[in-house]
Amino acid sequence: MSALARWLARWRPISIHKAVLAGAEPGAVTAALGGSIAEAFGCWHEWASQQRDSVICGRPGVTAEDFEKVAAAFAAVGVAAQ
């Protein structure tokens, strides 16, 4: 895998998270990134779950509110965690 591909893959979940929080539909985010909505959700969910559980100086990497907002956007299009 090229260095660029590794770099892009590393930041993909953050891009998904920020785009959905800004109001983008999961389908539009997926179209911009390529792949399926289920793949985008899986990528985001793995990252966000770790960030939500990671607390540094009393602050989570991702707040429960933001986690739920993005999860709900994906659930609205039929994709959710098992």
Major pleated sheet: 2 strands, antiparallel
**Strand elements, count:** 2
List the helices and strands in order.
HHHEEH
Number of helices: 4
Structural class: mainly alpha
- Helical proportion, percent range: 55-70%
Give the strand order of the largest sheet, numbering strands 1, 2, ... along the chain: 1-2
Q: Please report the distance between the alpha carbons of the first and last residues.
A: 30 Å
| Percentage of residues in strands | under 5%
Low-confidence stretches: none
What Rg, in angstroms, do the CA atoms define?
13 Å
- Average per-residue pLDDT, rounded, comes to 91
Apparent shape: globular
Structure, explained:
The protein has 82 residues and is mainly alpha-helical. It is built from four helices and two strands. The chain has a two-stranded antiparallel ribbon with strand order 1-2. Strand 1 (55-56) and strand 2 (59-60) form a beta hairpin. The longest helix has 19 residues, at 3-21. The chain is globular. The N and C termini lie far apart (30 Å).
Characteristics of this structure?
single chain; 82 residues; mainly alpha; two-stranded antiparallel ribbon; 5% strand; globular
Condensed summary:
The chain is 70% helix and 5% strand.
Secondary structure layout:
Blueprint: H1 3-21, H2 26-33, H3 37-53, E1 55-56, E2 59-60, H4 64-76
Antiparallel strand pairs: 1-2
